[in-house]
Amino acid sequence: MHLPPHAIRPDYAGGSVLNLAATLGAHHGVPSLHAPYRHPLPLDGARHIVLIVVDALGAGQLRDAVTRGDAPTLAALTPAPGAVTSVFPSTTMAALTTLHTARAPAEHGYLGLTVWLDEAQAVVNLIRLYDVYTHAPLEDAGFLAAVPSLYRQLHDRGVAAHVVMPAAYQHSVLTRWACDGAGYHPYAQPEETPELTAATLQPGQPSYTLVYFPDYDLICHGSGPDSPEAHAELRRTDRIVADLLAALPRNGDTLVVLTADHGQSPQPPDGYVDAITKKVMKTALRGPVAGEERAAYLRPQPGHHAEIAALLAPHATLLTADDAWTGGLFGPPAHADPRFRPRVGDLIAVPHPGHAIRRPTSPAPMLGLHGGWTAEEMLVPVLSVRV
């Protein structure tokens, strides 16, 4: 599998968020199928683990924020001494589910915002659970719960598991599966998270708590990761993290780790590519394009593969889904679940930097995107501190 020089491959051998989640779970006795996280963490003697996930906070974005003086709290934490990657595609559905399960996308099956589901014979939005073409709801989504959550495994080993997340997400199908086994502590405003998080650390039982901040990602999408609005939201997040650290008991037995599911890259409005029109979709494809604007999954009709490739080749790197699957892009092949291979189509198009594939089912153009394999999208921070 040949990738372009700018592409960052997921480092499932020890330097990805998959390995981070697996190692944190293993500290509390959960067996792992994957290589341990290669960078040192002060885990010895830690009874409590707090994992903070700031959606879309790429390593480069954090570095720039520290330079601007926007993140003094995060700047004071200990960074990983080497690069850490997201998964592929570098998107929330794939990467956050990996952090909830300690499994690669090829194992848990959440391989993008939208995927082809053989079970529904449709391209389905995995957040809202509807056919992206007809908007018909997915009636039975139980089959999507493919692996046990990390929290269920922790709970079964006597570890108190918790998630501190927005109230709006509490009852979704994905949350009910991916957070199974965890106490759900909902918040209306992120400023509530310090008190909620501190309350999850009780002296009599080891614990594992994930705290999730989604707002930075939403603002980066709408205004761009280099916008004043994104900078202001990161300053707000830094202040909340400072308050969270101050609220925790100072017993020396808590490890706090901060990371992200992926980064974001600025998306110029004129970089959107309109190659997949309604006519092309109806004549040359077996259904709508799936995946992401920055990592598209296509299912060409027999005899139309070359036509689709010719439309997209000037704008994107193309690879067959078989090569991506066996080449380990979605996770170590030895652990990949073959049931999920059809979800990524037959042809994968990863747009060149600054480009995005727009299609008839796309949302309105956004000024920040992720999903691809640039450094902006793939490299994430891992910061830690013992308190």
Automatic annotation (TrEMBL):
<dbReference type="InterPro" id="IPR002591">
    <property type="entry name" value="Phosphodiest/P_Trfase"/>
</dbReference>
<protein>
    <submittedName>
        <fullName>Phosphodiesterase</fullName>
    </submittedName>
</protein>
<dbReference type="Pfam" id="PF01663">
    <property type="entry name" value="Phosphodiest"/>
</dbReference>
<dbReference type="InterPro" id="IPR017850">
    <property type="entry name" value="Alkaline_phosphatase_core_sf"/>
</dbReference>
